[in-house]
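Go through this one:
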Amino acid sequence: MVLHNFCGDDSWSELVNGVQKGLAELNLGNIPITGSTESNFHLKQSAVGLVVLGKKPFDKITEKIFSNDLKFAVIGKPLVGNEVIDHAHEVVPLETFRKVSNLQDIMVWPVGSKGILSEFNQMFPSKEFTKEMLGADLDVLKSSGPATCFIIAFDQNQEVDIKKIATAFYHSITVK
């Protein structure tokens, strides 16, 4: 973990504690945390960057080619700004992310600041999706700047197991 602290020296230990809390939620221990603090001048705004480096096993297929046989869902809800604090109960827990991403033959894609539709188009670059093509109970254009949710593509026979893991965080997406 590489932590970029633009909040001043006083914030370093609190930020490290937050990273360690996330690691504990995932049952990951002994992960080194390094980084730096911008301390040679005072900033008027705060910012934090976090880089997580890891390895992906080669035996797990994590990419899929678009097919009408696939099912899609968003796990969590796109939130941005104060919504992340005000609706923290709608942010997908890290443990749920870990369990879903460990399933075999599933594609997992975090939703960023450009929203679900933009990420869908990056997941399947050979096909162009529009807002009208995606049926969901979520706003597919809404930002999820801190990645409070993720998209999954999976085979139909996996839906029951995924719903058990994701519980109320599961939001089905249909493609027209």
About this structure: Strands lie at 2-5, 34-37, 48-51, 70-76, 107-110, 134-136, 149-155, 170-175. The first helix runs from residue 12 to 25. Helices lie at 12-25, 83-86, 94-101, 115-123, 159-166.
